[in-house]
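Researcher: Here's my situation. A collaborator sent me these components and asked whether they could plausibly form a single complex. I don't have experimental data yet, so a predicted model of the whole assembly would be a useful starting point for our discussion.
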Amino acid sequence: MSTSTASTRTKSATSSWATSARFKTFAITFAITGTVIYLLCLQFNWPLFTFHPAVSRFEWGWGPSRSGEGPAMYWYGWTATTIIAGAIVSFLVSLLPESMTKKIPLILVWLLPILAIPYLIYDLRSWWFHP
Amino acid sequence: MDIFNYISVNTFWTIWLLVHLLLAVGLLGALTHQAVAVMMPVRQVAGAPGFVTRFRGVPAAGYATAVCIMWILTFIAGSYIYTKYRIYVRIPIEQAGHWKAQGFFDFKEHVASIGLVLLPVYWYFWKNAQNPEYDTARKAVTVYLAVACWFLFIVGHVLNNVRGFGS
């Protein structure tokens, strides 16, 4: 009985997200802003934190590799910046009236990630043309 | 209790690499089925359905939540082993001058992160698959994720071969 109640609750919670206009706006905005923010993080090097795996040390923001501490990793920080900033922007946009949010072009949801590919290839050019 | 009293450090990370691999295989299968189903939907079959018809005839909408969960789990497992990759794999790859292989790994990490931000909208589109307004976007996002997943899988596989399994 309790299992059935729990499963009914889970199902209705899931379906309420699937029918929620706010979640729709959040999801569409997150896909668009997330892609853009990630590319901006790469372009301007905005990691939320830097991780130094050889010494398991975290450092807020961007930090250089230090002698004796091995390499620095920025990807975790770029991804964290993207998720947090993207979620905040998307949440704020989801609070706007539907008359405004329905004007967000749906095409951007998939066009931007496709356009990101040539940019990424360009951004990684130092690897492709390394002597 | 220290796990390394029972297994070697190499075995520990190899197990995690295999977990990452198995999750990726599940994700790849689900996304490939879904992408084929969305691009070539089965309409009406005359006679017994063949392999291809059965392959694309899956109830694609039912895969959406599982795909999101598997993408996230694969992402987390990959992120966990990435720290060891950075020190024990990437540095030897650079020393051996495999620059393009390294470039493809960086490409892989970027594609995985972009795929991550697409998951909420992908899930929403599939949960509203009956709404024709989302048809084009749903197809495009699904195919994008499927192609991305194949790319991630192949690059991971090739990079593993560059350094050698268990090394």
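Model: Some features of this prediction you could bring to your collaborator: The first helix of chain B runs from residue 9 to 39. The interface with chain A takes residues 65, 79, 82-84, 86-87, 90-91, 99-100, 102-104, 106-107, 109-111, 113-114, 116-118, 120-121, 123-124, 127-128, 133-134, 136-137, 140-141, 144 of chain B (CB under 8 Å).
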